[in-house]
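Researcher: Quick one. two chains, 282 residues in total.
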Amino acid sequence: MKQIAKLTPGEKLEITLEPVTRMDLIKYSGSSGDFNPIHTVDEEAAKAGLPGIIAHGMWTMGNLSKLFTPYYEEGFIQDYKIRFSGMVFLNDVLTLSAQVDESTDEYLDFNVKATNQNGKAVIKGMVRFSKR
Amino acid sequence: MMYKEMIGKKSSRVKNIVERGMVKRFAASIGDSHPIYMDEEVGKKSRYGANIAPPTFPRTFDYGTVEGLHLPSKGLIHGEQIYHYVRPLLVGEEIYCYTEVKDYYDKTGKNGLMGFLVTKRYGEDLKGNLIFTEESIVIINEAVREALKV
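Model:
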């Protein structure tokens, strides 16, 4: 595995997830304590005017951060900013990516996003990975 | 304006523990079961000297309540989430957490009048040194405001 510190602007970390399942969202409800039923119960999603249950935005944000997990021996995520821009439905296939924007002696800045199978960004933001 | 009056208000500090079992379960639920979060030997040998928690784990802490701040349980839209870390959270450590209402403002968009509530949460070590902050922007739409009469 290449060191994260060796990445240069434009280079990318990227993975594609398995399709989103109801069990993924049930597990996240339990582990996060966010039991808002629009994430797990069809009838509640329908009542809220949604075509189906949607993933917790924080589930997607949590998933995106794992692009950086293999690199904790080199540093850590100092800043992580996300704007939630689209909904994630069951069976959606998300691609997570982080592209180096800037690299200095102290940190690496990444533009990060999760896009669905139609190419739409559902969350978008930045990560500053501290090299300290 | 109910929310505007809340700007600057804080909760009292609440002691939390970064629980090993919680971290393991949380990491698994985001598909991130990496040894740095759950294997004690890997944690000890790491540059942190212990297992750490995933960056979005602070979602699970108790931050106390801001007196007088009532948020509806339904109809809120999570707009933005911003973390800042001085260092990663260590599994097993005790921390103090509290929350602050940072800002509230209105915007009129294509979906009508919307309110934006900005809250900032803090995690400190037992000596009061900052470990992380977690800022959330939550959007309250017109239908919800009507129900709340704000």
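Chain B has a mean pLDDT of 92.
Researcher: Thanks, that's what I needed.
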